[in-house]
Description:
CATH architecture of chain A: Orthogonal Bundle
CATH topology of chain A: Non-ribosomal Peptide Synthetase Peptidyl Carrier Protein, Chain A
Strand order of the largest sheet of chain B: 15-16-14-13-12-11-10-17
Structural class of chain B: alpha/beta
Distance between the termini of chain A: 12 Å
Number of helices of chain A: 3
Mean pLDDT of chain B: 92
Shape of chain B: globular
CATH superfamily of chain A: ACP-like
Strand content of chain B: 15-25%
Oligomer: heterodimer
Helix content of chain A: 40-55%
Number of strands of chain B: 17
Number of domains of chain A: 1
Radius of gyration of chain B: 26 Å
Radius of gyration of chain A: 11 Å
Order of helices and strands of chain A: HHH
Strand content of chain A: under 5%
Number of helices of chain B: 24
CATH architecture of the largest domain in chain B: 3-Layer(aba) Sandwich
CATH class of chain A: Mainly Alpha
Amino acid sequence: MLDRRLVEAISRALKLNPGSITPETSQENTEAWDSLAHLNLILEIEAAFGVRFSSEEIPLLTSVARLQEALERHGAL
Amino acid sequence: MSTKAHTKAHTVHPQRGLRIALLANCTIELLQRPLANALNERGFEADFWVGGFGQYRQAILDPDSALYDFAPDIVLLYLDGEDLFPEVLENPFDLDTDRRQQLARSRIDELEALTTHLGKRLPQATLLLNTVTIPPLNTLVGLEYNSDYSVRDVISGYNTGLARLAHRSPSVVVVDVESLVAWLGFARWRDPRLWYLARMRWSREAIQALAERYAATIAGRLGQMRKCLVLDLDNILWGGIVGEEGVAGIKLGEEGIGLAYVEFQMELLNLYRKGILLAICSKNNPADALEVLRSHPAMRLREEHFAAMRINWEDKATNLRAIAEELNIGLDSLVFVDDNPVERAWVREALPEVYVPEWPDDPSDFKTALLELEVSHFHKLAITEEDRRRGELYRAQAQRRKLQATATSLEDFYRSLEMRATIGVADSFTIPRIAQLTQKTNQFNLTTRRYTEAEITDLANSPESLVYWLELTDRFGSNGIVGVLILRALTKETWLVDTFLLSCRVMGRTVENAFLGFACDVLRAKGAKKLIGEYRPTAKNAPVADLYPRLGFRLVEQRQDSQLWELDLERQQVEIPEWFEIVLVSEGAHA
């Protein structure tokens, strides 16, 4: 199950319809998810969940599933 | 040149179009969306063009640059101190004073060359530059100020140079990013992860703060600002409720928390000095409130500082409407400060045009809240003579209203005012005020064309156009420059009224008859036969919809967004009312 707040943050940052967001949604298969949009998305999620990802993590969090895992790892979910 | 800002202004919806080019020596893309939102809140719909990473010199110097195809109204060039002066932080031990001064100077010289180049290609555009800072935690800590090594002097030399550059080039506006960083704190300003991952110099918080600051600056530059701050009394100007605790019981003075109210009032007085109107809207017994205003020894604000006062038991929305009407400004020119969240919610609901900020509970925070409001909604980039005297002007206005109430007829009232219209052609003294009036006049404005100082200068220098200002004086004193008339020659014999506007504070005093009557005389002397008046309807200028027919003009063309009216100068005349004395001053003679 995807976290609702995560879907909302992704939808806001990438301007995607929340209904179209699945765990498989990724930088690879989403045109709006370019490298700058990625940073914007990360900053949006950090603000929404009060977490801080490391500079090593950030480039790897390129799919919704990975973002959700990372939030779980940081104890935010 | 872009015309979008002019044609879209206040027509279908109140959003004003704006074209903004973003240039930087670091990654700037993430600023775009927050800036668009911040501008949107201030009534602007912005289109953006973003220059390539670190390509700002090419973007400006290349004659075929896409920057010029985009034709921006605003060029936002953000230069970060660390990118401007890499050598300074890399090895500050290698730089002596001369070399450091030379570094600052060379960057300013380069910027000046770019400014000049940009000014030639985009004469109407505003260039936003920024003061810079370097990380306060750097290798010179301890050595700075105690040894010959320094990085501070490069930074202060550069920032001082920017101020001089802005002074020389009217198209340049400096955004004081150095002070913004100091206020926010450098540690919160930077996010080193974003530097290493994307060559971005800002944190998320910094982007938000910067977007707000740029939007406020742009709104200030384009005259889209609030004009009047309306204040509640109890627990705003003083602590406690005067009706219950009495004049002696309220908290106001040098003791304890009373000082917070005194210092808040001191800053309000500065707002008044900057030309922002102050007004009172309070549920109170008028006698109690007036006693504090008149006789409390610690009050910094007195009755004379308020352009309007509504102290009664009516609801605040009704009172705010009455204040806007009395001052002859729109509700969207008001900001309302009240300590009571219920009143705030009610006013927001009833009058969505009025800006009602959240307000801190603790009076210790009042002064800071006010300063933040000054940045966000009363952002001034210059102070004109009119600004300095605005409070006074509105007080005289109240006296005029009293006179009007006692006059037996309107004509008697006009005669008793002893009005003198001083008219002159635009010169370097009057151009800033003329541009300011075109930017912010909404009601008595026939065409609502917004002009920058550079554009007014061009019009004033062109043989094809005439730019006149009008200063109105009466028995209560001068109203300052309150009118602008721009005439363009379409042919030798036909002239067009490109711009005709009067400040709302002199509406209803037949100044328009005097000004246009004067223009007809001037044009006739030049051999003109026809004068075309244009009316472009907006959401706000309905009061002048019937101006041209009223003055005898005949409708000759009805376009989708404008009407053209014609006056036959050979047969018709706009009478200058006999109660006016007209004084024509020659160029450069403005007092």
